[in-house]
Amino acid sequence: MKLTFLGGVSEVGPLSMLMEHKGTTFIFDHGMLPADPPEYPMRPPMVDFAMLSHSHLDHCGMLPTLVRTYGVPILSTHPTIEVTELLLYDSLKIAEIEGYPLFFDKSDIKKTKSAFDMVGYNSKRDIGGMEIEIHSAGHIPGSAMFELRGEKTTLFSGDINTKNTRLQWGAHPVKCDTLIMETTYGGEDHPDRSETEQDLLDTVDDTLSKGGQAIIPVFAVGRTQEILMLLDEGDYDIWYDGMGRTVNRIYLNHEGFLRSPDALRRAVNNANQVHSHRMRKKAMDAEVIVSTSGMVSGGPVMNYILNKRKDKNTSILLTGYQVPGTNGNMLLEKGVIQDRGATIPIDCQVKRYDFSAHAGHSELLEFARGCDPEEIVLMHGDARELVAEDLSEFNVHIPKEGEVLEL
Ligand SMILES: [Zn+2]
Ligand SMILES: [Zn+2]
After folding, report:
1. How much distance in Å is there from the Cα of 219 to the middle of ligand 1?
2. How far apart are the CA of 381 and the centre of ligand 2, in A?
3. Ligand nearest to the CA of 379
4. Is residue 14 reached through a cis peptide bond, with omega within 30 degrees of 0 on the bond before it?
5. For position 100, what pLDDT does the model report?
6. For ligand 1, a single-atom ion, which residues have Cβ within 5 Å?
7. How far apart are the first and last CA of the chain?
8. Where are the alpha helices (DSSP H) in 116-180?
9. In angstroms, how far is CA 243 from the centroid of its own chain?
10. Residue 228 belongs to what domain range?
11. Distance CA 57, CA 134 (A)
């Protein structure tokens, strides 16, 4: 088996991995990093088959170029396919607005959608002389790990979360000979989730008691749903806005990929959805706003924050990692955001909570040990050495972009 990473291996960048096995070439994910400017993986040679682990753009963002060039079939789950389609159209729109290069068009996205071979968790396919089984990765609904069984067994993890969240059950280890594992949170452990949840709810209560508003920027995919389910514990006047609305609908249409479809449906129904300009105006005075984008880099959350920018009693509760250079990061570091070229001071209280959907360092180690492989290939992280050090009982590989690894 020959592995080549075309991107996203030594950093949390646009992931793409080639696997050549007995004359068949597979490609696992083919993403783009929606940074400024965006980052892309290297161009692949002819591939026979693609597998898509999940619908985040750093994994799926360049898939249409594979369909456009090689017409490859893509194996993935139903929610992944639908959310991927949504994000691809959105990325096209952003590329047009920002003047980024366009590598595909709307008709390629359509072709990509019909190139998908839809599978459920624990279903199997015979491809390239191997039996391929799909396991839940626990990262976002529909996220998958691929187990390839030939003479030897290989597991490609995609992005994983081994802890149970409100939205999903955590991923379990799969016995294999070769484990190809993500390391986004290598070297870092997450705080206790229930304490984080309580801390956020306490801050919302505190904010409301002072007459302020709680504005919660969220990612559309996974985080919107997780936060709505958490807020459903309280008795708040909640309004949600942005792309998460469509993702809610997609996930509720695919109940089998959720831990509790009833709990998500209840949370969504107990909150108010903003679906018109008039409602957005009304939502300006809500107790709690849940809206994209998660890093405050555009989306309706900008309007809500600008509306309350002088209110010291209002809180902005960030719910994920904030990439340096984004508004979310500037809010945390300097209490300002950029809007149409102007720097605007924000007087609201700003806090950040770790609602990560990735396994932390200790969970990665536990997962790898549970898989009990002979070889481990670490990918998709900038602190892989720290993970490798703690897994010294295994034969661990830390390949670079473009390097060929023969196993
Ligand atoms: Zn992801
Ligand atoms: Zn990723």
Report:
1. 11
2. 9
3. 2
4. no
5. 94
6. 56, 159
7. 5
8. none
9. 14
10. 193-352
11. 20
Q: Could you tell me the CA-to-CA distances from 384 to 173, 304, 381 in Å, in that order?
A: 19, 39, 6
Rg (CA), the chain: 21
How many domains does the chain fold into? Answer: 2
Q: Which of 311, 337, 352 finishes a domain?
A: 352
Ligand nearest to the CA of 80: 1
Residue 36 has a pLDDT of: 83
Burial of 71: CB neighbours in 10 Å, binned 0-12, 13-18, 19+: exposed
Q: Which of 352, 371, 389 is the last residue of a domain?
A: 352
Q: How far apart (Å, rounded) are the C-alpha atoms in residues 251 and 257?
A: 8
- Report the alpha-carbon distance of residue 35 to residue 193 in Å, rounded: 28
pLDDT at position 35 is 86
CA dihedral 175→179→184→189, nearest 10 degrees, is 40
- Give the CATH number, domain containing residue 79: 3.60.15.10
Structure tokens at 162: 């081994």
* Vertex 177: Cα angle to 174 and 178 (nearest 5): 90
Residue 175's alpha-carbon distances to 148, 153, 172, in angstroms, are 11, 8, 10
Residues of the chain with pLDDT under 70: none
Do residues 230 and 152 share a domain?
no
226: its two tokens:
């997780």
Question: 54 C-alpha to center of ligand 1: Å?
Answer: 7
